[in-house]
Design goal:
single chain, 360 residues, mainly alpha, 12 helices, 2 strands, 2% strand
Length: 360
């Protein structure tokens, strides 16, 4: 438990203190955000706000994780060390963060709202996802449990639905691509993606600690979990939560910096990685429901427009629909945060109720 608190506290402090440094550096370099012309006109005032702030979140996550294990090593020689699961999830987020950084950098250099083309971004996501998928099925522990499983999962593996190696690689790519794009779509208002992500990662701190507390190796029972390295995943989730909250201090309306694709793709990758390493891939659809709804709004907008030549929403993602309907930006943000919190709590309730049913 101490390691989880250290990871969250260190990541929070690093994010809060490092972000203003990035604001100064990126402002001097002219790394400002380009704004869509067809968007809400109030957003035009944000043109030139420093972007690529996701760098601060990634640095904070790694610092929180590293300091936690350094403290553990100093206080308990031979104790908890970095694990395959924790490192793989962090590397997945970092890999996607690099893809996002390239996208942001091209936008800035070309001074337009389009960075990497769809093919280049897809290839970047594909490469990162394949590397993660292959490695996640390696590194078995003494119980022969690997960081991820070839089975589909809800709260635990569904043994009757197995993808096989090739199928899992394809599934992993679809999951990584879907979640990274979903968080990316949500990142359209000051603090919306950061605040929503913090709630999701806070939920996963509870889930992973619960899986550690009722690990089948130490607490065999009807509701125990066969998950590799749940405590280390709790440290990763806590560091991510702290990094998001610290960044939110500067990203909340009116934002002094945006996370850009650097942050949104990285956070989406972290969401996907945690869902696979904790065997909660389908449950994540509930926990991250706000991201799912945002992505669905884009898909529906495109589908309806291509078939009827009419728009379903005034603008997609549909948080902009409410802005164009006259809602203040802060009103949209707070209400979407409330929806994100409801989704996270409902998902946590499903997780607990499943354990309760098996335990009794």
């Amino acid at each position: 438990m101490k390691g989880i608190l250290i990871a969250a506290a260190v990541a929070l402090l690093v994010s809060i203190m490092f972000t203003p440094y990035l604001i100064r550096v990126f402002s001097r370099q002219g790394f400002g955000q380009e704004i869509r012309e067809e968007g809400p006109q109030g957003h035009q005032a944000k043109r030139g706000t420093p972007t690529m702030g996701g760098v601060a979140i990634l640095v904070a996550m790694w610092c929180g994780y590293a300091v936690t294990h350094l403290v553990n090593a100093m206080s308990t020689p031979g104790g908890e060390t970095p694990t395959a699961s924790g490192l793989l999830v962090l590397l997945l987020a970092t890999g996607l963060g690099i893809v996002g950084f390239m996208d942001d950098f091209i936008k800035i250099r070309r001074q337009r709202n389009l960075g990497l083309n769809k093919t280049a971004k897809m290839i970047g996501q594909l490469v990162v996802a394949i590397v993660f998928a292959v490695l996640a099925l390696q590194f078995p522990d003494e119980r022969e449990i690997t960081p991820a499983s070839e089975n589909l999962s809800f709260v635990r593996d569904i043994s009757v639905i197995s993808f096989g190696l090739v199928g899992f690689v394809v599934f992993c790519y679809l999951l990584v691509s879907a979640w990274s794009n979903a968080v990316n779509f949500t990142d359209g208002l000051d603090g919306l993606a950061g605040g929503s992500s913090a709630m999701v990662f806070g939920t996963y701190v509870v889930i992973t600690f619960w899986q550690f507390r009722y690990d089948c190796a130490t607490s065999p029972s009807g509701g125990c979990y066969d998950v590799r390295d749940p405590l280390d995943l709790a440290v990763v989730a806590a560091a991510a939560m702290g990094g998001c909250i610290g960044f939110l201090w500067w990203n909340a309306a009116p934002a002094k910096i945006f996370m850009g694709d650097t942050g949104s793709l990285a956070l989406g990758g972290l969401v996907a990685g945690l869902s696979m390493t904790t065997s909660t891939e389908l449950l994540m659809i509930v926990i991250g429901g706000i991201f799912v709804v945002e992505m669905i709004s884009v898909v529906l907008q495109i589908a309806v427009f291509r078939t009827t030549r009419r728009r379903l929403f005034r603008m997609a993602p549909f948080h902009h629909h409410f802005e164009l309907a006259g809602w203040a930006e802060t009103t949209v943000i707070i209400r979407f945060w409330l929806l994100a919190g409801v989704c996270a709590m409902f998902g946590l309730g499903l997780f607990y109720s499943e354990w309760l049913a098996l335990e009794n």
